[in-house]
Design a protein that fits this description.
Elements lengths: L10 H12 L17 E11 L2 H12 L4 H15 L9 E8 L4 E7 L22 H5 L10 H12 L4 H4 L1 H9 L1 E2 L2 H14 L3 H7 L11 E2 L2 H13 L2 H5 L1 H11 L17 H6 L4 E2 L2 E5 L2 E5 L6 H12 L9 H22 L10 H4 L2 H8 L42 E7 L4 E7 L52 E5 L2 E7 L5 H15 L4 H6 L3 E2 L6 E3 L1 H13 L4 E3 L7 E5 L5 E5 L8 E7 L19
Parallel strand pairs: 14-15
Antiparallel strand pairs: 1-9, 1-17, 1-18, 2-3, 2-10, 3-6, 4-5, 7-8, 8-11, 9-10, 11-12, 12-16, 13-14, 16-17
């Protein structure tokens, strides 16, 4: 439903003034310091939580000047395209989940990239029929899907916003023009991609200034991206999908401009018709009830809503809130493995493969799947997929093969926004791998995605249907899981995370910690994590292994240590009209949470940051 349009007359001056006050120009002498990251904020008037303080500030400015949650979400996303260009931007896509306080309706926008019409099932196979090496496929034009982010922004503003694109993009334009202060995380991400970036002159020129890694404390601007944003602000998304930007995107994908002496990369299949035909449709969200709460997520082609929802339904068969920490985490890991088995076997783009979504999210199927959870012992992994056939009774016999999970990059970013009226946005956006394809569109200032490597390159078993093989116009399966939780129709919580397939487990574990284990949202986001995705070994952070590894290992769980999992942000509505914004305190360099009107004394003045949610069980 389109919203009443308002005018944000003060935004240009407000944004410019705050950029100058909080950005590079603030330093009078010496090396400028990156903006401070605050992981927890409590107050009123609306809230924003992102991985980046500049993006959070830009979103808060829009809220403070009269914009709503959709307006602020697009503004913050545009800012992330400047400061988090290796994770998201107009060269990628994402999923936008929106709660309308006036109608009580949850809506979603599917901004997932699509395969070119020229892409066939064997697109990622070598001449001998074997799958291409992942690294070769990632850094290529072949991996680039039709970008969905610009049309997602336009659709979000049209359906839910109050401001035109021309006003919402002002903060991102100013940030791209004036630059942002490089922090250690950005330098490390650049260093990890340096070899790839040097293969493409436009990428090296933008992210390796003077041919060197950007120094911490230096200021990195992106005038080409500012120009792209100005074009979108002035003319809408038309030039991106059927105009001058579209022409540049297609030319870059079909003939990636390599540096002199660099090895050639595979050309892509994207054509002008793919951009011209692209749509970012509204889709019905997934919905399940958990402990009396209504949990909404993203439907296929994302597997986030279905897999989080199924795992929660399985967990609801157990009194998780009454269990010890180790018992609760054991049950969480087992439920996650079961849900991933079914995700891998059944979930893909519903326009190309039948997805039994209603059954996957049914209480009967969850009860049947819960039979496979032994409270005292971990099942050998991988576990078999279930049979969501609509007929559920006593515990079933062994199920079907689970299928392959595919390879998803660890990057992506997530933002969460709420406004003073109670509208909420949970928005996950990405270019897939950290650094995407590595290919920057010359003169346009943005990296192209490598989302098509989310397809399963070849079926693991030719006799078992594989729902995620490439096909013309198809959307690859995603794990993005932007989530909004309601209680009696009113929002209580919204969250999401980056992290490839670990997005699902990060959102799931955070919900379990917050709802069942009575942790505050900030503590639940900061808690040590493990991620079981139906593989022989679960990923686990060092702090998780130190605290729980021995006891869970004695039950048969096998872990592989990994430095960090996910980088969540979230918002919770507290009693008394307060809103809490939370982000990571450490992961990915820490996130940034803010509210329009902070509570005097901050979170310390709130007696209970973890009020009971739902029916404890």
């Amino acid at each position: 439903m389109a919203r009443r349009r308002t005018t944000l007359l003060a935004l240009a001056g407000l944004t410019a003034g705050l950029v100058a006050a909080g950005g590079p120009a603030a330093a009078e002498t010496g090396t400028p310091a990156p903006p401070e990251k605050v992981p927890l904020a409590v107050g009123t008037g609306g809230a924003v939580a992102t991985v980046d303080p500049d993006a959070t500030r830009v979103g808060l400015e829009v809220l403070a000047a009269g914009g709503n949650a959709a307006d602020a979400a697009v503004a913050a996303a545009a800012a992330l395209g400047v400061t988090e260009p290796y994770s998201a931007g107009v060269g990628g896509g994402g999923f936008f989940v929106h709660y309308d306080a006036e109608t009580g309706e949850v809506s979603t926008i599917d901004g997932r990239e699509t395969a070119p019409l020229a892409m066939g099932v064997d697109a990622f196979l070598a001449e001998d029929g074997t799958p291409l090496p992942l690294a070769e496929a990632v850094t290529s034009g072949l991996s680039v899907g039709t970008p969905g982010t610009p049309l997602t922004w336009a659709r979000a503003l049209e359906e839910f916003g109050t401001l035109p694109m021309s006003e919402v993009l002002r903060g991102g334009i100013a940030l791209a023009d004036e630059g942002f202060v490089v922090d250690e995380t950005f330098r490390q991400q650049t260093a990890a991609n340096e070899e790839r970036f040097r293969r493409f002159p436009a990428t090296a020129e933008l992210f390796l200034p003077g041919g060197q890694l950007p120094e911490v404390g230096s200021v990195l601007s992106n005038p080409d991206l500012a120009g792209t944003y100005r074009l979108l602000a002035e003319e809408g998304v038309g030039p991106f999908y059927a105009g001058e930007v579209a022409e540049d995107v297609v030319a870059t994908v079909q003939d990636p401009p390599e540096a002199a002496g660099a090895a050639e990369v595979r050309p892509g299949l994207l054509e002008a018709v793919d951009l011209a035909l692209y749509d970012a449709p509204l889709r019905e969200p997934t919905r399940i009830e958990y402990r009396g709460l209504e949990v909404y997520g993203m439907a296929p082609p994302s597997s986030g809503g279905s897999t989080v929802g199924e795992a929660l339904n399985v967990l609801e068969q157990f009194p998780v809130g009454e269990l010890s920490d180790v018992d609760a985490l054991h049950t969480y890991l087992e439920a996650s493995a079961l849900a991933f088995a079914d995700r891998n076997r059944y979930v893909g783009d519903p326009a190309y493969t039948p997805v039994p979504l209603e059954d996957l999210l049914s209480d009967g199927f969850a009860a049947e799947r819960a039979c496979a959870v032994d409270p005292g012992r971990a099942a050998p992994k991988p576990v078999a997929a279930g049979d969501p056939d609509g007929e559920y009774g006593p515990c079933p016999a062994e199920g079907a093969a689970a299928g392959a999970g595919g390879a998803e990059g660890p990057s992506t970013t997530h933002l969460t926004v709420a406004d003073a009226q109670g509208d909420v946005v949970s928005y996950t956006l990405t270019i897939e791998q950290t650094g995407g394809s590595g290919i920057t569109v010359p003169g346009r200032g943005f990296l192209l995605n490598n989302e098509l490597t989310d397809f399963t390159f070849a079926a693991a078993d030719p006799t078992v249907p594989e729902p995620n093989l490439p096909a013309p116009g198809k959307r690859p399966r995603s794990s993005m899981a932007p989530t909004i939780v309601l209680s009696d129709g009113a929002p209580v919580l919204a969250l999401g995370s980056p992290g490839g397939a670990t997005i699902i487990t990060t959102v799931l574990q955070t919900l379990v910690d917050r709802v069942d284990r009575d942790q505050g949202l900030g503590d639940a986001i900061a808690a040590p994590r493990a991620s079981q995705r139906n593989s022989a070994s679960a990923d686990a952070e060092p702090a998780f292994l130190e605290r729980y590894g021995a006891e869970l290992g004695a039950r048969g769980h096998v872990f592989t240590e990994t430095a960090e999992i996910g980088a969540a942000t979230g918002i919770e509505f507290l009693p008394g009209g307060l809103v809490l914004a939370a982000a990571e305190p450490v992961r990915r360099g820490g996130g940034s949470a803010g509210v329009v009107d902070p509570l005097p004394g901050g979170a310390a003045g709130v007696p209970d940051l973890a009020p009971d949610l739902g029916d404890q069980g």
